TrEMBL record, chain A:
Catalyzed reaction equations: n isopentenyl diphosphate + (2E,6E)-farnesyl diphosphate = a di-trans,poly-cis-polyprenyl diphosphate + n diphosphate
Entries under InterPro entries matching the protein: Nus1/NgBR, UPP_synth-like_sf
Pathway given in the UniProt record: Protein modification; protein glycosylation
UniProt name for this protein: ditrans,polycis-polyprenyl diphosphate synthase [(2E,6E)-farnesyldiphosphate specific]
UniProtKB/TrEMBL annotation, chain B:
Name of the protein described by the UniProt record: Alkyl transferase
Keywords, alphabetical: Transferase
Gene Ontology terms for molecular function: ditrans,polycis-polyprenyl diphosphate synthase [(2E,6E)-farnesyl diphosphate specific] activity
CC annotations in GO: chloroplast stroma
CC cofactor: Mg(2+)
Gene label: LOC108847724
Similarity comment text for this entry: Belongs to the UPP synthase family.
Provenance organism: Raphanus sativus
Enzyme nomenclature, EC number: 2.5.1.-
Pfam family, one: Prenyltransf
Keyword Magnesium listed: no
Length: 258, 310
């Protein structure tokens, strides 16, 4: 066998060894990344448990007054497991949250609202649709609002129809308001939404439980400056993670675009 | 077992160390992404591995950049409309000891690079929140500089948009912006309105609430003209009156917000119902190709159900 015959065979084997080497390198990287995820998951779990046990000082005292209204968005699959939602509400009440808007797109939680209110001691249905003052003598009470997709676009369309009707029926110099500037303002739409039965309060913080990082159709009109935090699956929720998210929110400083 | 591992690691070291040395000597940049892409390309040639076959059967891998390295993205799962809130220009400038205007200039440059890359990846529509209604509350000097920057950039890039066949739309209130900028916007819109495949939407003096209110007013006008009745007004008709009606895909599939803030700040309130939200801690002028790919990979890994059970 001369050198010319040997070259292709040699190239072939070098190629094979190279491919094998790169394959091994890829798998090695996979192992490293998987180990990294496992380690960081363990670290998160330890941290969460430490927070839950009150071992970390900074999470022991949270300025909960800054969180006047909290929204919780729950994925439709998870919304079927009401027990998890009840646990979450009980945790929120323990932390001192006064008002919670519970949202799932299909309204499953709305259908279970009686059971949820019964199972969460000190909970009340949020009846008022406007701004609500939290007076000190309501300590230990948590107001719960149940929201679904019908409170989003459908509600805005209904409110728009009310304004439209109001404008068309107006007898006060309609020619001066051809552009609708006196009828179609933010405060007018707020009022029309209240007439339709909607709460217009803007949540300070939104916690999203589910596989997707999306608010899943939460009432758009209310989301202007809401902090949005994705918490992962409700199935694996942890008290420590909840406390950490709320604590982080209390440290956020918004400039509102200015 | 121990001896097997030691053989494997020795083999890996023999490949990696000379490779790194050679690349250093030749000044060939090796980023982790390039190495991963190259390895995936080689290993994907093996047909006997079920896992790699499954990945390849899911669609076509997307090539990025001049080297044609695969990015791990699947073309069929690419979002059709990506929106971005370009936050962090001022902090970036402050961090670098630069003027605020320089930060905004870097941000404008980054936007064009971002849009260019998105279009290359097959994303048809890119929206950018350039100036919000609330931004009028900033110092007059900064606002005037921003208006001047918009005018300068848009007019200087007109030929580029024509050459690349990018349709440019500007949405927002536009009543308070300078006349000269308004003329530039009008010229740009007219010159590029025939292009269909790539659409860049700039939101200037935009507010999500204003958008909804404008839609109400538009419906009111149509009702006054007898074009529609009150009973006709539904979600579809309402959506047709929002400023994003100029886009083929008005609702973004992915929203990226930079600089670590986790809110949508009155941007596309109606349109973002089922949009994947990606919050990046990186400041906007630093949001490069790698960061965009990271956002897109995150998007492609998510299972979006649009509120329904599948």
């Amino acid at each position: 066998m001369d050198f010319n015959d040997l070259m292709p065979l040699l190239s072939f084997w070098i190629g094979q060894i190279g491919d094998l080497g790169l394959d091994l390198l890829w798998r090695f990287i996979h192992i490293v990344v998987s180990l990294w995820h496992i380690v960081s998951g363990i670290f998160e779990a330890i941290l969460s448990n430490a927070i839950s046990l009150g071992l970390i000082q900074k999470y022991s005292a949270i300025d909960i007054e800054k969180l006047r209204c909290l929204a919780v968005v729950v994925d439709i699959e998870v919304a079927r497991d009401v027990s998890k939602v009840i646990d979450l509400l009980q945790w929120l009440k323990t932390i001192g949250v006064k008002q919670v808007g519970l949202f799932d797109s299909q309204g499953l939680l709305k259908k279970s609202k009686d059971m949820i209110l019964e199972m969460v001691p000190g909970s009340m249905l949020l009846q008022e649709t406007g701004e609500k003052d939290i007076s000190p003598d309501r300590k230990g009470i948590i107001d719960i609002e149940f929201i679904s997709s019908s409170d989003n676009k459908e509600a805005v369309v209904k409110a728009a129809n009310i304004l439209l009707e109001k404008h068309l029926k107006s007898n006060n110099h309609p020619e001066k308001d051809e552009e609708g500037d006196n009828v179609f303002t933010e405060s007018h739409l707020n009022e029309a939404l209240r007439v339709v039965g909607e709460n217009v309060r803007v949540p300070d913080l939104m916690l999203v439980y589910g596989p997707v990082r999306s608010h899943l159709g939460f009432p758009a009109w209310r989301l202007r400056y809401t902090e949005i935090v994705h918490m992962g699956s409700l199935k694996y929720m942890r008290y420590g993670s909840l406390l950490k998210a709320i604590h982080k929110f209390t440290g956020v400083r918004q400039n509102y675009g200015v | 077992m121990v001896s097997l591992f030691s053989v494997v690691f020795t083999g890996l070291a023999l490949i990696l160390i000379p490779g790194l040395f050679i690349s250093w000597r030749l000044s060939v940049p090796i980023s982790f992404k390039n190495v991963l892409g190259f390895i995936k390309l080689i290993t994907s040639r093996h047909d006997d591995e079920e896992e790699r076959n499954e990945k390849r059967d899911e669609g076509t891998y997307v090539n990025v950049g001049e080297e044609g390295t695969t990015s791990g993205l699947v073309r069929e799962l690419m979002p059709r409309h990506v929106a971005v809130i370009m936050d962090g220009n001022r902090r970036w400038a402050e961090r670098g000891g630069l003027l605020t205007l320089q930060g905004h200039e870097a941000g404008a440059k980054r936007l064009l690079e971002f849009a260019d890359l998105c279009f290359k990846l097959g994303i048809e529509t890119v929206s950018a929140f350039a100036f919000s209604t609330e931004n009028w509350g900033r110092q007059k000097v900064e606002v005037n500089c921003l208006m001047f920057l918009f005018e300068r950039y848009l007019s200087s890039k007109l030929q580029y948009f024509k050459r690349e066949e990018i349709r440019v739309s500007v949405i927002g209130n536009l009543e308070k912006i300078p006349e000269s900028l308004l003329r530039t916007i009008k010229e740009l819109k007219e010159s590029t309105k025939s292009y269909k495949k790539k659409h860049l939407i700039l939101a200037i003096d935009y507010s999500g609430r204003f958008d909804i209110l404008q839609a109400c007013k538009n419906l009111m006008k149509k009702s006054q003209q007898g074009l529609i009745s009150e009973e006709d007004v539904d979600e579809t008709l309402f959506e047709g009156e929002l400023v994003t009606k100029c886009a083929e895909f008005p609702s973004p599939d992915l929203l990226i917000r930079t600089s670590g803030e986790q809110r949508i700040s009155n941007f596309f309130l109606w349109q973002l119902a089922y949009t994947e939200l990606f919050f990046s801690p990186v400041l906007w002028p630093d949001f490069n190709e790698d960061k965009l790919l990271e956002a897109l990979v995150s998007y492609q890994c998510r299972e979006r159900r649009f509120g329904r059970r599948l």
